């Protein structure tokens, strides 16, 4: 408990810290610096977005072809079942 009181007492009696003129100049330079970094960041984000978009299109395309192939396999399996196990019909739906 005494340590806390000593630390609080030291904190209250600390001298104020003033930034130097050099520090102020550096901060103002960084604030007023042109937005060159933002433009580079925008370009990299645009490239990243384009890659993500191409990847999404590719995944969509592969999924669609896989679903279409599976649908054709299901249809052919149904035709086999219909021809082997069910009563033959002359329907044009198969």
Which structural class is indicated by helix and strand composition? mainly alpha
User: What's the assembly state of these chains?
Assistant: single chain
Helix content: over 70%
Between the first and last Cα atoms, what is the distance in angstroms? 89 Å
State Rg: 36 Å
Question: Could you give the count of β-strands?
Answer: 0
Question: How confident is the prediction overall: mean pLDDT?
Answer: 82
Inertia-based shape: elongated
Largest sheet: none
Enumerate the spans where pLDDT stays under 50 for 5 or more consecutive residues. none
Q: Count helical runs.
A: 3
Strand content: under 5%
Q: Report the order of strands and helices.
A: HHH
Written description of the protein model:
It is a single chain. The chain has helices at 2-12, 21-32, 36-84. With 94 residues, the chain is mostly helical. The longest helix has 49 residues, at 36-84. It is built from 3 helices and no strands. The mean pLDDT is 82.
List the helices and strands and how they pair.
Elements (H helix, E strand, L loop, with lengths): L1 H11 L8 H12 L3 H49 L10
Task: State the gist of this model.
With 94 residues, this protein is an all-alpha fold.
Features:
mainly alpha; 94 residues; 0% strand
